[in-house]
Design goal:
15 helices; alpha+beta; seven-stranded antiparallel β-sheet; globular; about 25% strand; single chain; about 500 residues
Length: about 500
């Protein structure tokens, strides 16, 4: 049993910059969108100085009061100055272990350890933000393999191992991976050029542009306004294109930084995913804890046959990936089965789809068209040239029909899979034993056409996830409900085989 230890002193500065980053973002928002005209520059200098002092003290106190100890199969943590807390993380509760290294940590050859446990929610259960790699690997190996290694080394009365070779999972204890895969530079660039999320970046860029008038001479601003009034349509279109181009460039850079040096190593049931240029992240997942696989194709990637592969598990997801873990950032749709056979072979099989009834097509199209008609009517009433906005109705009709054509569902004895589309097309593959609940619902409008919505819930974080497919016929939903029901599953399987 070891003594309690503190983190590396660099953790003070890691915490300092982390806290400061969040506070600076808040300060920038207040500066751009608050009533900055009523306060002089001295106010912001005082606020910035207070933030610096508070951030440093917070980081120092965290380092001073945070201590940990690694025992057999368990990690003990003590933390807190006024309200003290003791925590115990046992090996059996660990879902995934994530080793991260941001720029400041990499400068000192340190890493951050994140441990996700059952019931940990959408944030890591435990973090040590600055450890040397040897200590981090000791924690990782003890919590992932410690019990198994001791069992393989434990002698019997004759001095031999208690377990035979057949009972020892040599693949897990082995150092050599069974399968490795790296994202090529060509695929990385393609993933960056076709990445989604441009809308979020465009909103941020547009908000910055809206504050430009505070930093340019008033005469320039008045001249620009006059130009806008004289050529409003041309200027607005040019402005929108400029915002989208800048947002697209931001997404390209962020994707390259995020998925650069992406690699997968599979050893036994453990999947190690490493990625990142500035922030190096290494995540270890257990194949047996994967609860679903998702294939996602956005509108830029689908015409070229590219897709991204995500996995849902009880741990390891991140907020920027909707609490999922990306398994393959980009590959050809025809390559998915081969990758799954090597990494998660249970999910590698053909998935024929049953489409939706024709009467559901109207529901998909009306659901998008009605809001478009209302918005276009309001824009036309309040703005000149607003009638052009009625073109959005055609887009809504086409998108609704596209959603209808892409939707489908299928099952076999062990799995259910669904395909649906919002903007991106998503295929979800769920093992029957991982499904928590299956619900069939219908609203009043659906009941007019005898349509329903099928909802399938699985365990991913403390709240889980629900995948839904809209506008199935009542008979379709009932068939899949019976497939899941233990009472009717045997009968259903016999009927499908016959």
């Amino acid at each position: 049993m070891s003594d309690f230890k503190r983190q590396h002193p660099i953790s003070i500065f890691v915490s300092f910059f982390g806290n400061l980053k969040q506070m600076i973002i808040t300060l920038i928002v207040l500066f751009f969108f608050g009533s900055s005209q009523t306060r002089g520059p001295w106010f912001y200098f005082l606020v910035l100085g207070a933030l610096l002092v508070f951030s440093f003290l917070s980081g120092f106190l965290h380092w001073l009061t945070f201590r940990y100890r690694l025992d057999e199969q368990e990690l003990h943590i003590r933390q807190g100055l006024i309200f003290r807390k003791k925590r115990y993380i046992h090996q059996d509760r660990v879902q995934s272990i994530d080793l991260n290294a941001k720029l400041i940590q990499r400068m000192f050859n340190l890493v951050e350890v994140r441990i996700e446990t059952a019931g940990g929610g959408d944030e890591p259960e435990f973090r040590i933000i600055a450890l040397n790699k040897e200590e981090a690997n000791d924690i990782r190996n003890e919590l992932l393999y410690g019990k198994k290694k001791r069992e393989t080394e434990a002698p019997d009365s004759d001095g031999n191992s208690i377990l035979s070779e057949e009972e020892i999972d040599q693949e897990t204890v082995s150092k050599e991976p069974d399968y490795t895969w790296k994202l090529s530079t060509k695929r990385l660039i393609t993933a960056a050029l076709t990445s989604s999320g441009i809308g979020v970046a465009a909103t941020f860029v547009a908000a910055l542009f809206s504050q430009v008038q505070q930093f340019i001479p008033e005469t320039w601003y008045e001249t620009a306004i006059g130009f806008v009034v004289e050529s409003s349509v041309l200027f607005i279109l040019s402005f929108l294109i400029l915002v989208l181009v800048i947002a697209w460039l931001i997404r390209i850079v962020s994707t390259v930084l995020k998925y650069g040096n992406f690699s997968i190593e599979k050893t036994g049931n453990d999947i190690v995913i490493a990625r990142g240029l500035l922030e190096r992240r290494q995540l270890t997942l257990n194949r047996r804890r994967i609860t679903a696989v998702r294939l996602v194709q956005n509108v830029l990637r689908q015409p070229f046959g590219y897709t991204s592969v995500y996995v849902e598990s009880a741990g390891g997801g991140t907020k920027d990936e909707d609490l999922s873990t990306i398994l393959i950032p980009l590959c050809k749709e025809t390559e998915v089965k081969a990758h799954l056979e090597k990494i998660v072979p249970d999910f590698a099989f053909e998935r024929p789809l049953t489409g939706l009834p024709k009467k559901s097509m109207k529901r998909y199209m009306v659901r998008l068209t009605v809001p478009a008609v209302i918005a276009a009517s309001a824009i036309t009433y309040f703005f000149d040239y607003g009638a052009y906005s009625f073109a959005a109705i055609i887009v809504a009709l086409l998108m609704g029909y596209w959603q209808y054509k892409d939707a489908g569902i299928g099952v076999n004895e062990r799995f259910l899979w669904m395909r649906m589309r919002k903007f991106a097309r998503t295929t979800v593959i769920v093992p029957k034993k991982r499904i928590q609940t299956v619900e069939v619902t219908s609203n009043p409008l659906q009941r007019l056409n005898q349509l329903t919505t099928l909802e399938v819930s699985i365990l991913t974080s403390i709240m889980g996830k629900t995948f839904s497919l809209r506008h199935l016929s009542e008979q379709q939903s009932m068939n899949y409900y019976m497939w899941y029901s233990y009472e009717h599953s045997t009968k259903y399987n016999e009927e499908t085989k016959s």
